[in-house]
Amino acid sequence: MLLRKILVTSLTVAAISLPTIALADLDTYNYTDEDSSVKITNDPLGYNVCSYKLGQYTPKRPDASSYSFKHVPESAVRAVCDRMLIGGVCEADIYATKDCNGNVVAKASLNLDTNTVTVINVPQPSGKQYNITASGSRVEIHYAS
Question: What phi and psi values does residue 3 have, to the nearest 5 degrees?
Answer without folding.
Answer: -70, -25
